[in-house]
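Notes to self after the call with IL:
- keep both proteins in one doc
- input above output, always
- annotate only the second one for now

Protein 1:
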Amino acid sequence: MNAEVAAARRPIRALSDELVSQIAAGEVVERPASVVRELVDNALDAGAAQVTVRLAGGGVRAIVVEDDGVGIAADELGLALQRHATSKIGSLGELESVATMGFRGEALAAIASVSELAIVSRTAAAAHAMRLDARSGELQPAARGVGTTVELRELFFNTPARRKFLKSEATELAHALEALRRHALARPDVGFALWHEGRLVAQWRALRAPLLDDAATQRLGDVLGADFIAASRVLAAQRGPLILGGRIGHPEAARSRADQQYLFVNGRFVRDRLVAHAIRAAYEDQLHGSRQPAYVLMLQIAPELVDVNVHPTKIEVRFRDGGAVHGAVQAAVQAALATSRASETAQSVAAMAAATAGSAQPCASPAWLRARQGLHAGMTEIPSTHALPMAQSPLALVHAREPAPPWPRPAPAGAAAGLAAWAALRAPQAAAEPVASIPVAPAIADEPADWPLGRALAQLGGVYILAENAQGLVIVDMHAAHERIVYERLKAAQADPARMPTQALLVPVSFAATPLEVAAAQAHQATLLDLGLDVTPLSATALAVRSRPVALPDADLTELVRSVLAELQAVGASRVVQRSRDELLATMACHGAVRANRRLTIEEMNALLRDMEATERADHCNHGRPTWRQLSMKELDALFLRGR
């Protein structure tokens, strides 16, 4: 047997440059869409204002990417096709703070190794363009304006095994369109067009709005549709060195698949489990079942605090302090979701009334203006959403006539000289106002027209409250609505939501643990203490639990700790304890809420409506079901065919 192995053994030798290029192509060039992504990245780095992509055969037969950027000098065209030759970085320091879309200098070489590639480029100083054929190395004059055109034919022609694994033409075209759509979302100032077989498939014109915010919102509507804008709200926040912007979908607009979730870090589309976990945690008790939220989230952060060189396709990033990012994203999304649709509607109606009266006051409320000024002045603390009316929460800048979300701007140079910049993200959250300050029956406004959820009319079937507001008819599920009110009060009654009250155990609970669990317990000891769990290693294969959260007296400590450690290993943060506590509070709220078939007086119904208007996340019960629905006068007229 040893003789056979020895005979079959190959000597160790260096791979040829061509084979190395093929391996790189296997990492960078997966399908036509990955070629489109890499070439458009280069076009944007070159300062292009218009990018046009032309495909044939779904991108397998031909891909042509044209841009109007600065172009490539004739004497640099040959270098552009060499591996690890790039103008983006020149030192390790620049790699650690890279702010361009591309930086490795291997994409063109990898693409050229699996296709027939040619580059036509011209700079502003050149009299004419030059064309370089990658296969023959021939350089000759060509005609085109300033910019670059990359042409490639017959993708994977020399690697038939890889070509065999490509999908149908329609599928590959869809993937290429999705790649371009992601670029279009991140860069509203750039025009994009996609042609297939001579037919225009998609086009997004460059937007030159007076405010970048307006252009960003318009581009979101152009790419994702008006339905996404109508079913989402603005997210705008700054916490320490992290700037967040974009739009997050309403919980009732959640989808069965996670196909409308876009995360961008410094303008680059990425998939990050840490941020996805934080967003999901923010929606936790507002989504019904396994529904998935829709969102477009832009994160802007100093390049020194994020590593983009962790994946061949640059689809993943690694934050220097993942826990701080997780907490900041979760807090910002939670605060944005806190505002109810009733408060948004009331603010919108008030703003339109002010505009009709010829008021010089802008549509946004003073609180909205203060929040927006705070964002640009560099606020470092997320303020309490209880200090202002729900519709004026600084991190929930939702307004029907609001121009747009503050799109994240690039962080100023030197804004994060080191990890000390994360100190603001580690700052404790502003304490919520005690529940005693929320009246059981809030003071009634001077005029019923000021009530977002309107004036109670009657009770239907012992389950629903019928009310009339300025828009028409409001139908409220009284048990679901009261359940949310009680639940939010129970959560607010917690002395310090960031740190769980702890109960020491007379006899520690020990259990066998894997080396990974022991390592996670040691690495995240401070986080575990914040969750009310004092977990210490007994040996290399055992852990001891010496305290438990007071809110979970009957929890299985072994399973609880295992679940927390598993989540900490996966994403660097855990919601297991908070989730268990919230489930307990939700059960208490469900049993404490008003039951069906209980007859309420008009005064009690009005008090419940006013409580809903003053409660965060009042649009949904603890299980994610809607608590109320609005039927407008137009919808009611349509039911009775009025005006036809």
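Protein 2 (the one to annotate):
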Amino acid sequence: MNNIDEAAEEAAAEIKSKTRKQRIWNIVKTILKVAVTTALLIWVFSKVDFKSVKDRLLHPQYWWMYIAAIFCMFLSMVVSAWRLMSFFKSMGLKLNPRYNLRLYFMGMFYNFLLPGGIGGDGYKIYLIRKIYKTPAKKLLLAVMFDRLSGLWAIGFITVILIAMIPAIKISILVPVGILLAGSVIYYLVVRRFFKDYIKYFFQAHAKALLLQALQILAVICLIIGQPDANIIYPPYLLAFLISAFAILIPVTAGGAGAREGFFTLISIKFKSVFPIVPTLGVFIASAFYLISLIVALLGIYYAIFPGRLHDGLPEENPGGIELS
């Protein structure tokens, strides 16, 4: 076990050691991301009343819905780690579930709280490759397909929500057709060119749907906790799903400000399709960011002490690694 612990500590130290140029670039990236986040939030609160959003955050009608939302968010992250394991298993890498979950939360912590430094996915890939001599290319592809499965699930649920919003003047056959055609092409490409990742393909995508459903449930809990009456849920949920694409662009600090900006934009420019109360939309974005941050803090222990990732696991095979 000591050898594994030392390897983990060594990997952590090595990835954190940067050249002077790299350190300067990380500082510059962090400053730029904070600047973009600040600019977005200034714009948002020039259009939406800050006090109203703050009151929503601090004085919900049902405060216990925050607990329900955090629980749903936590479950979604467990499912997300479980989903990634499907792609690891497809390539012949079988991690101990506890070890995989610890790695996942540690990576989530890095993604949220170190916006200019090590990416969570990059750290996981580096650590597994360093300790277990797994090819980096295979790990990168596993993470890529993990992300693609999430985008597919967003597309699937988006089609359902479009059908529930009469203001969207489009035949449901159009989005359904696009989804079906895209899904078939996606599957055939993976089957033809990435056979190593096809074994648990359907299982992983079912988990992706469950993950998105849990996050939508978290958003519903946040809305239920507010005093607004006669809320029409689909426009808010569809806006939330589409806003996921806004946070994919790594120009803000941990995604802060991106969703708020998106909700503000559509509440102003697309009122007919998205009849959203602006303060409620910005509240949803901000509250979801905060509960995600709370869940991400679960990874702080293993980020500080990476050698403890293997604590309590079998000494003869602490990561549960089996490479075929």
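Annotation: The mean pLDDT is 84. Residues 3 and 42 are 50 Å apart (CA to CA).
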